[in-house]
Amino acid sequence: MGNETFTDQYRLGKAELRAANGILFLLLLPVPTSVGRKRKRKETKPRIQKYISSLGIKMSSANNSQTVIKCKAAVAWGPGEPLVMEEVEVDPPKEMEIRVKVVCTSICRSDVNQWENKAQADIFPRIFGHEASGIVESVGEGVTEFEVGDHILTVFIGECQNCRHCVSGKSNMCQKLGLERRGVMHTDQKTRFSVRGKPIYHYCAVSSFSEYTVVHSGCAVKIGRDVPLDKVCLLSCGVSAGLGAAWKVADITRGSSVVIFGLGTVGLSVAQGARLRGASKIIGVDTNPGKLEIGSAFGITDFINPETCSQPVQQAIKELTEGGADYSFECVGDTGVVTTALQSCCDGWGLTVTLGVPKSKPEVTAHYGLLLSGRTLKGSLFGGWRPKSDLPLLVDKYMNNEFELNKLVSHDMPFAIINQALDLMRENKCLRCVLHM
Ligand SMILES: NC(=O)c1ccc[n+]([C@@H]2O[C@H](COP(=O)([O-])OP(=O)(O)OC[C@H]3O[C@@H](n4cnc5c(N)ncnc54)[C@H](O)[C@@H]3O)[C@@H](O)[C@H]2O)c1
Ligand SMILES: [Zn+2]
Ligand SMILES: [Zn+2]
């Protein structure tokens, strides 16, 4: 990374992409954003209508729930192999499913890690993507919650509103529509995509790297038509995961000390959540020195680069926090870092929340004394939010300018150059790349 700041890396990435994509990319460049600039809610509606009509999406009000759609999708034929833009056939939605015209999808680290994961080579060919916004194209039998033309966010863990977990009000681990790991739809264990007659597996039962996709109606959340689809797709996973970890899972209190390992979109969202809760010290730990600048914009008060720190990171944190932080968050996806995060919080009440999804070595090791002396280790998926019950409130908060989201979009790109977006994330040169379908 040399001495480039993270902002320089963005600019570099953008310049390369502009060269690669000429006029089309220029058309899609975002209006520059700045932290704290207030949007006026009433101005967004004409903007989003103009945006949707500029996409040339022909949405008929008819429910075409019997037809197969042919469209473009970025298919991963093998782990880590560049995605291939294929013409795929998308089946009609089955009972309680909806078919969605994807409008925007952003790339999350989990997409990249799973695409590269050789241990799951049997779940290929596959269509990745799970952070997405779109418009309902058709509805399957039994769907009453959605109508053709509704704007939605997809979610990678659904809410059936009937199972033990959903009715408990205590958990988002829906037993019917929970995290889908086998590449098929929850209800019939089959796929809805094919290429030249060959079935294509799904990812998290969302698969948004496709112009059209089919999701269970329990894995979509309706949003207002004035909500900017090219921004709010980030609430479909990473930003909500980070804010929820800070607000719902940890429930950070005013004046507390917080340490966050990994300042990607997830970690920066935890930082923002901590700042909005009035944390007095927010320490960011990242191996990319460029994350200092963007981290400060999201509330980081102190920055540690483990690669240049002269002492063990947990020791440096103990010195900065008089014995250990009140809360620590793992947003890297490395179980070794989970151990360091646990060692970095204080005894008595220190809470470590893990959000990262490890690429390898899923076992966590830690001295038992860390727990015996009162620390808690807690995992969280999607920030503990129940998508249907809680996500609309987060969307409202965004629309009321109660938190920053636009600045986490580092790149806007056309879907056609998705491989360049994946490279940016692999090279740690982006936050969220939003792909416009
Ligand atoms: N729990 C959830 O609901 C949820 C949701 C979204 C993403 N995730 C997971 O969260 C993690 C972060 O996602 P992201 O999209 O922000 O990723 P990202 O790649 O944008 O950010 C990761 C950051 O960690 C830093 N990093 C890497 N190794 C490090 C180390 N050893 N110590 C400190 N920093 C290090 C990188 O420089 C980068 O800034 C991933 O594992 C992802 O799969 C979980
Ligand atoms: Zn994700
Ligand atoms: Zn449920």
**What is the chains' assembly state?**
single chain
Record field, number of beta strands: 17
Q: What percentage of residues falls in helices of 4 or more residues?
A: 25-40%
Query: Major sheet: size, sense and barrel closure?
Result: 7 strands, mixed
> Separation of termini?
30 Å
Fourth-tier CATH superfamily name of the largest domain = Medium-chain alcohol dehydrogenases, catalytic domain
* Secondary-structure element pattern, one letter each: HHEEEHEEHEEEEHHEHEHEHEHEHEHEHE
Q: According to CATH, what is the topology of the largest domain?
A: Quinone Oxidoreductase, Chain A, domain 1
CATH architecture of the largest domain: Alpha-Beta Complex
Shape: globular
What's the gyration radius in Å?
Answer: 21 Å
Number of domains: 2
What is the SS-derived class? alpha/beta
Low-confidence stretches are: 1-40
Mean pLDDT: 90
Bound molecules: nicotinamide-adenine-dinucleotide, zinc ion
CATH first level of the largest domain: Alpha Beta
Percent range for β-strand residues: 15-25%
Tally the helices: what do you get? 13
